[in-house]
User: Which sequence fits this backbone?
């Protein structure tokens, strides 16, 4: 089974882009790591489309469970299976001093809604919730995540990005501890709008750039549930 995994969609264009990509690559399922927004689309022609809660969402749709055809919204600390692979979910963002500072500076992180935050569980509660999980899905990034501006070099055909400047180290200590506690084979997230591939303990972690079509740096990952092989592709 081929699973397409994408970052922030930010509404209809991104959702439709993910659906088209799923068809183009022959994916059997889609996983979207939060900030989907348009989870109530009635005509998303796609394989089963699994959505993690972000910090900007249509909260009434989530509360009432009125998702569009083929779209499945997953609550925090729940699990689901694709083929034989078990996925665990922690949506939303962590309530950290850094996030509060950014809000105080005027950054809109959805702070008018209490739904943006995830709850923190104790270690054994996390182990019980995610027993047997091979893939952990989050929206927020585990600490440490280097957040900064990556200017593109002047070459028009260059698809990568330049050196990070104006850096800040952000992310959730809690999610880092969850990953080290559960030790899933893979972790995928979104939120930061930048690609970061790294190891956290024994876990290979992919913080994905947006699938949203207005972004210059875009990409996606695929997971083969038979071989458990992951491939990342720039768009």
Assistant:
């Amino acid at each position: 089974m081929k699973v397409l995994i994408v970052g922030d969609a930010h509404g209809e264009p991104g959702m439709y882009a993910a659906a088209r990509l799923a068809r183009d690559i022959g994916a059997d399922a889609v996983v979207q790591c939060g900030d989907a927004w348009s989870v109530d689309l009635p005509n998303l022609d796609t394989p089963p489309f699994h959505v993690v809660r972000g910090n900007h969402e249509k909260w009434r749709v989530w509360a009432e469970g009125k998702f569009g055809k083929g779209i499945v919204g997953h609550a925090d600390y729940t699990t689901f299976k694709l083929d034989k692979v078990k996925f665990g979910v922690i949506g939303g963002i962590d309530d950290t001093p850094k996030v509060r500072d950014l809000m105080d500076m005027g950054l809109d992180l959805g702070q008018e809604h209490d739904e943006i935050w995830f709850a923190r569980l104790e270690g054994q509660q996390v182990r019980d919730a995610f027993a047997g999980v091979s893939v952990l899905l989050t929206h927020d990034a585990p600490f440490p995540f280097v957040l900064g501006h990556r200017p593109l070099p002047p070459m028009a055909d260059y698809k990568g990005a330049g050196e990070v400047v104006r850096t800040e180290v952000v992310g959730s200590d809690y999610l880092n501890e969850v990953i080290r506690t559960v030790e899933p084979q893979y972790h995928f997230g979104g939120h930061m709008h930048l690609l970061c591939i790294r190891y956290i303990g024994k876990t290979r972690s992919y913080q994905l750039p947006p699938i949203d079509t207005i972004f210059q740096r875009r990409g996606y990952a695929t997971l083969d549930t038979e071989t458990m092989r992951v491939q990342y592709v720039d768009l």
Summary: The mean pLDDT is 92. Helices lie at 12-25, 59-64, 97-104, 123-129, 173-182. The chain has one domain: 2-234. The first strand starts at residue 2 and ends at 6.
